[in-house]
Write a structure and sequence with these properties.
The structure holds 3 protein chains of 3 kinds. Chain A is mainly alpha-helical. Chain A contains 10 helices and 2 strands, in the order H-H-H-H-H-E-E-H-H-H-H-H. Chain A has 2 domains: about 160 residues, no CATH class; about 70 residues, no CATH class. By secondary structure, chain C is mostly helical. Chain C has 2 domains: about 250 residues, Arp2/3 complex 21 kDa subunit ARPC3, CATH 1.10.1760; about 45 residues. Chain C is built from 11 helices and 2 strands; from the N terminus they run H-H-E-E-H-H-H-H-H-H-H-H-H. In chain C, strand 1 and strand 2 form a beta hairpin. Chain C is globular and about 75 Å long. The chains are: A mainly alpha, B alpha/beta, C mainly alpha. Chains A and C meet through helix 2, helix 3, helix 5, helix 6 and helix 8 of A and helix 1, helix 2, strand 1, helix 4 and helix 7 of C.
């Protein structure tokens, strides 16, 4: 359930991880740099993205569904519609209430939503088509510090184990959280429930600290010296280099086009 | 006599699409002691998780006349005590007392009642002197007993055990078997421990790949070497 | 289950201006670099498995919740407990890993916005926790209740101050007017912070009762980080003072949002280089939108057609 990678046989899956990371970064950067209200740009970014999603065989529905997950944050941009930049007009709702309304604010709010939506989809395509180990390998190649990489690798290794642990703990709590009906009022106080949850968190952290001691012992016994294991990295092939250049040029072209043609 | 647990045409698959249970039919009568055996991944634990509504699949699960749905869930859970495989998942309080008191406290019982429930539950598992101890520091066998006490304190009619003897040393295991033998409730025990099934249970259910493949008196089924072999039990 | 938790502090992409995102990235990278050096020099390789496993535990621990009422629930972010257990620099790295994995693998928070999210939860969260915890510990002495009170107040303050940082970033980016973002974020997190404080308190109580030695070990790592003590204190005070100021003068913050800067200049320059007649009518927004729509449809159709051809081809080959 946690794993984002979807194993498919597609062109996008075979592209080198580094290319995809660079492309995703360029895409997100370009989308975010595109000024508000540049609908032409957003349309073109979206069509490129849809094309890539189709090529990746992740399933448009899957990507759309996952992308909705970032949207609740839009609440923070909604006030722009009412109290956005000047000119703020006042419009009558049902001839009774007067509501402030900023057209520029509305435009910005919609643009923010579109940018968020496009960016999150690009990130979903990256993680959906690239196994975690390849993403990590890509980070290694763009010189993310090795300690950080080791931490993230270990974190990933134990994440599923520990998420399972938490799931079991919550299941065990649920199965003891019961009611016997009147006259007794079940649930206890909020403070008590919070305390129990805190105790569970404490127990989880303690078990994890003790787990890390065992992990360390096991690593030592396999010859760990403190340096992360270096993995030989593959270089970009000619094809990958071409894909990088071509795809980034395409994004750049859309970006420039959108700068011209916006409002 | 009405069955205490009535499961009809229960099927369940995990969100990732893996089929875990297929067309399970099972009736359990009050006081029965049932051993559920099967290889790893046969669906034993998944089935147990349906008896108190942690999982809900297709088909019907009826506990003492109550359909296992949202409306009855918390009431059903009060009737069904689940003892999980790893006591560390189940014990989360700073003292044994608080852990055993969790269930009654959640139910909203008065203080004196909670106290007497805790004392009775600890006595039932012969851990009277342990109320103020920290569960985290107890031995595996002791933790298991406390875990049992945490569900006994809710006065359930049905007790469900997931691999109760896994990871216990021989003496702790023997003592646990004695304890299980004394429990008056209806018992469902998922286990690999055929000796336990032989000693404690009256009825044995064999599961394989999410289905019930045999259901009958343990004494008979345990003699069927071919059955045991086919289902990865020996 | 994991995804039902909406973290109101993980900013997705799109909500921060690029300028703000890049500045936050620079600050976060600088802090991570310092943390890496400190951890490497002072703590050594033993720390790596501890950091990795605890990062996983904090990620998973954020799933733990308790119901409050009406379907809402309290849960943990974990910066304070990480700081108290691991010391500030190690906690910066652990929180950075947690926030990064959430963003990069689960799209919980943006990629471009990751610098800001690391700053808010990994730097502000940890530094403020540290400052509050250390100061209160000194005031209370080393009693048990002193630890608990300091820990839970550190947890509350870290959430509250981090949310102010988040609100200011949104306001400066022009995403949310400061006079709305700051009080709204602040108020929500003043409440969420109570959940954080209570869970942290419960966790500390459990750990103290079960493995007291952990606190003796960690107090060594906690002592003597004057820089963070001062830094965390300043962050807390500045944000607490700055944000009410900002929300009373929301317009002063919109310097980036107005986008009168580089991008507008670049745009103007393009118009100058390419006079209107080079692309007849394309500067008319309606026509250009239609052109873009057609172009987009052609791209998508082309790819769909290509895929269909390829599939047919491979099908006949088989």
């Amino acid at each position: 359930m946690l794993e984002q990678y979807r194993d498919r046989n597609s062109l996008i899956h075979t592209v080198h991880a580094r290319v995809k990371i660079i492309f995703t970064l360029v895409f997100i950067l370009a989308v975010n740099l595109t000024p508000a209200g540049t609908w032409t740009g957003f349309i073109l970014y979206f069509s490129i993205l849809i094309s890539i999603i189709m090529l990746s065989r992740l399933g448009i529905r899957y990507v759309l569904k996952r992308s909705l997950f970032a949207l609740p944050f839009i609440l923070s941009a909604i006030p722009l519609i009412f109290w956005g930049p000047e000119p703020v007009n006042h419009i009558w709702l049902l001839n009774r209430v007067q509501v402030p309304f900023s057209l520029v604010g509305l435009e910005r709010c919609i643009s923010i939503t579109l940018k968020a939506w496009l960016s999150v989809q690009a990130a979903i395509v990256l993680t959906g088509t690239t196994p975690f180990s390849s993403i990590i390998e890509g980070f290694r190649q763009i010189h993310v510090p090795l300690i950080l990489i080791s931490i993230i690798e270990l974190m990933w290794r134990y994440l599923f184990v520990i998420v399972d642990e938490v799931t079991r703990m919550m299941r065990a709590r649920t199965s003891r959280s019961t009611q016997i009906g009147k006259p007794y009022h079940s649930g206890g106080s909020v403070l008590w429930r919070a305390q129990v949850t805190g105790n569970m968190a404490g127990s989880l952290f303690l078990r994890s600290i003790e787990r890390s001691e065992r992990v360390y012992a096991a690593m030592l016994s396999r010859g760990y010296t403190g340096e992360p294991l270096s993995v030989s990295s593959t270089n970009l092939s000619k094809k990958d280099q071409w894909i990088t250049v071509f795809s980034c040029m395409m994004i750049l072209a859309v970006f420039i086009f959108s700068l011209f043609t916006g409002r | 006599m009405e069955p205490l647990i009535k499961i009809q045409q229960l099927s369940f698959s995990y969100p990732d699409g893996k089929n875990a249970l297929t067309d399970i039919n099972l009736s359990v009568y009050p006081g029965e002691k049932i051993g559920i055996v099967g290889a790893n991944g046969a669906g034993k634990s998944t089935l147990l998780m349906h008896i108190n509504g942690i999982f809900t699949g297709e088909g019907s699960v009826i506990i003492d006349g109550m359909e296992c749905d949202r409306k009855h869930l918390e009431k059903i859970r009060a009737r069904v005590g689940v003892v999980f495989q790893n006591p560390d998942d189940q014990l989360f309080s700073i003292t044994v007392y608080d852990d055993v008191a969790y269930g009654p406290r959640y139910q909203g019982l008065p203080k004196e009642e909670i106290h007497s429930r805790v004392e009775k539950a600890l006595a039932a598992v012969q851990m009277e002197g342990y109320a103020d101890r920290n569960p985290y520091h107890l031995s595996g066998g002791e933790k298991k007993r406390i875990a049992i006490a945490t569900v006994l304190s809710m006065n359930p009619d049905i007790l469900v055990f997931d691999e109760p003897t896994a990871g216990l040393d021989p003496r702790a295991r023997r003592e646990l078997l004695e304890l299980l033998g004394r429990l008056p409730q209806t018992l469902l025990i998922a286990t690999h421990d055929l000796e336990l099934v032989d000693q404690l249970t009256t009825r044995m259910i064999v599961m394989n790949a999410g289905k019930i493949v045999a259901d009958g008196p343990g004494k008979e089924l345990l003699q069927d070497q071919q059955l045991l072999f086919n289902n990865g039990l020996i | 289950m994991l995804f039902s938790v909406v973290h109101p502090m993980h900013i997705p992409d799109g909500f921060l201006s690029v300028a703000v995102s890049i500045i936050m990235w620079i600050i976060s990278i600088a802090m991570i670099a310092i943390a890496l050096r400190k951890v490497k020099n002072e703590l050594g390789d033993r720390e790596v498995p501890l950091m990795g496993v605890l990062a996983a535990a904090i990620f998973a621990g954020q799933m733990l919740n308790f119901s409050v009422s009406g379907g809402t629930s309290g849960h943990l972010l974990g910066a304070a407990i990480a700081t108290i257990l691991l010391g500030p620099w190690t906690a910066v790295l652990v929180m950075t890993s947690v926030v990064s994995v959430q963003a990069l693998l689960f799209q919980d928070g943006g990629v471009l916005a990751l610098g800001a999210n690391i700053f808010n939860m990994g730097v502000v969260g940890v530094f403020v926790s540290y400052a509050v915890f250390q100061l209160l510990q000194k005031a209370f002495g080393k009693q048990k209740w002193g630890l608990f009170v300091s820990g839970s107040l550190a947890a509350w303050t870290s959430i509250f101050i981090a949310s102010l940082a988040c609100a200011l970033e949104l306001a400066i980016s022009g995403t949310s007017p400061a006079n709305i973002a700051v009080p709204a974020m602040g108020a929500i997190h003043a409440i969420i912070g109570i959940g954080e404080a209570l869970i942290t308190l419960g966790a500390l109580a459990f750990l103290y009762a079960t493995r007291k030695d952990l606190f003796e070990k960690s107090s060594k790592k906690l002592n003597g980080n004057k820089g963070i003590l001062i830094g965390g204190g300043i962050i807390a005070v500045v944000l607490a003072i700055l944000s009410p100021l900002a929300s009373s003068h929301p317009d002063g913050l919109e310097w980036v949002a107005e986008q009168k800067g580089f991008l507008e200049m670049a745009r103007a320059a393009f118009y100058n280089i390419m006079p209107d007649y080079a692309f007849p009518g394309i500067s008319d927004p309606n026509i250009s939108t239609i052109v873009a729509g057609i172009l987009g449809a052609v791209i998508v159709f082309g790819v769909a057609f290509g895929i269909a051809r390829l599939e047919k081809h491979s099908a006949t080959q088989e």
